[in-house]
Amino acid sequence: MSGVYSALVHYPIRERDGRTATASVTNIDVHDIARSSHTFGLAGFFVVSPIDAQRALVVRILEHWRSGAGLRRMPHRSEALATCLASESIEEACAVITQREGRAPMVLATAARAPQGRSVTAFAEVSRLLAERGEVPALILFGTGHGLVDQVLIEADVLVEPIRGVAGYNHLSVRAAAAITFDRLLGQAAVTGPHD
Question: What does the pLDDT average to over 103-120?
Fold first, then answer.
């Protein structure tokens, strides 16, 4: 079976007022999502930003955990960050996956809300699609800021249903949303079923 990858997208994302924007890379997002990606067996994790200085920041963060003080202090994080890459765009991440896997990835997008007219796919169904996809790799997109722009959500092969809480509040950090999504799509319950 081909690999599942994830990407933390910093552009194109939405601002609070709906405009398209670019968000800043943060250290905690990079290493926490890399750790979650590795925990659930993903083949790679892309940090997407079109800004050269932001991608250089990702490289510095990775160097800290792979060969710097972070490696000496917490060597297990180096393993998790070994599959992390800085990427200029979603298209570039897809091109890297295509080169590695020999096929273009199925793109799955996540969002707290779906754009008008776009249907969402339940976690259980997406988990089944991933399990049955054969040699087709997959890329799961997470948006920073106020989420991925509608165009990305519309163009994705699959739009994963939103994570819904129980308190009427829906503003998870992207780190928490990624971990929950990986567990629901790739975790033990997703693989074996909740009662196995």
Answer: 93
